[in-house]
Design a protein that fits this description.
By secondary structure, the chain is α+β, with helices and mostly antiparallel strands. The chain has nine helices and ten strands. A hairpin with a 7-residue loop joins strand 5 and strand 6. It is globular and about 60 Å long. The chain starts with 5 loop residues before the first helix and ends with a helix.
Length: 288
């Protein structure tokens, strides 16, 4: 903490106070398709469905209405302990659903396929106990890219399909980072291949709960995203040319210029990705 410059510390604290000041009061809306005629919070709290994740501060629930599937993320407040822990490490705490809602909006504006929000609400002034929710449409019939590519090591797809998918994913990540958003969990399992169509792939990026939003993505956070993506694709037999194809789209510059200006950073990304992969294999006791 002693290494933080005064100027950056002031800006960081301004970001914290600005975030907290925006979170006081009550705001809620639901799309007409959900059929809510009363209080949105009462509607949300009465929903029943399949619980995908239940944590002390957050529940993720799938439910159906009018023959369509939806996902609800309901936040109950993280508590002062979690807030102070994040602030001590100069991290902005995730206090509710607003963060994911804002990330969805930014990505959609940049043409990045993602979730569609059909409901949002927040109530309360205390950042430790405020409640909030986000409802998104289910992206049905959409396997993750982790599932789609699981057997590519044994049964590789046609080269044109692999190349097309690499370029599409690179373009999505490029647009996300240029919008000032870093994902923090940028793994292939969070890209859903809509309609399972590899001929004309349109992956949708999901699970933006932990995403960070700034005017521009700091280098270390860009590195973390790219290392995570690289590590999660380690099971795919990618050639050096495949990696170059990704870099050409992501940086949108001649490769000679990319390696001249960013060569050392690319080495750091690869090393970080290799470390993530090793940690994953150790955790799940899988042979490398």
């Amino acid at each position: 903490m002693s290494g933080v410059k005064a100027g950056s510390g002031i800006k960081w604290w301004a970001d914290v106070t600005s975030s907290l000041s925006r979170m006081c009061g009550r705001d809620a809306w639901l799309a007409p398709e959900l059929g809510c005629e009363g209080d949105p919070f009462a509607y949300v709290e009465a929903l029943e469905g399949r619980v995908f994740r239940a944590m002390p501060d957050r529940t993720t629930l799938r439910f159906e209405h009018g023959g369509k599937g939806y996902f609800l993320k309901f936040h109950r407040g993280v508590g002062w302990g979690e807030i102070l822990k994040n602030l001590l490490f100069f991290r902005l705490p995730i206090l509710g659903a607003e963060n994911e809602r804002a990330a969805i909006k930014l990505l959609a504006e940049r043409g990045v396929d993602t979730m569609t929000a059909v409901g949002f609400g927040t109530v309360g002034c205390s950042p430790a106990s405020r409640r909030s929710f986000l409802i998104t449409e289910e992206i049905a019939d959409a396997p993750s890219l982790e599932e789609v590519t699981a057997d590519w090591g044994e049964i590789p797809p046609p080269a044109k399909i692999r190349i097309r998918l690499i370029r599409v994913v690179a373009g999505m990540v490029k647009e996300m980072h240029e919008a000032g958003v870093n994902h923090r969990d940028l793994y292939l399992c969070h890209f859903l291949l809509q309609r399972g169509n590899l001929g004309n792939p349109r992956p949708a990026l999901i699970d933006l709960h932990r995403a960070q939003i700034r005017k521009s993505v700091p280098l270390r956070w860009r590195r973390k995203d790219l290392a995570a993506l690289y590590s999660s694709a380690a099971h795919i037999p990618l050639s050096d040319r495949d990696l170059l194809r990704f870099l050409r789209v992501y940086f949108d510059r001649p490769l000679r210029d990319v390696f001249s200006r960013d060569g050392r950073e690319l080495d750091r990304i690869r090393k970080a990705g290799d470390e993530l992969r090793k940690k994953y294999l150790r955790k799940y006791h899988r042979p490398a």
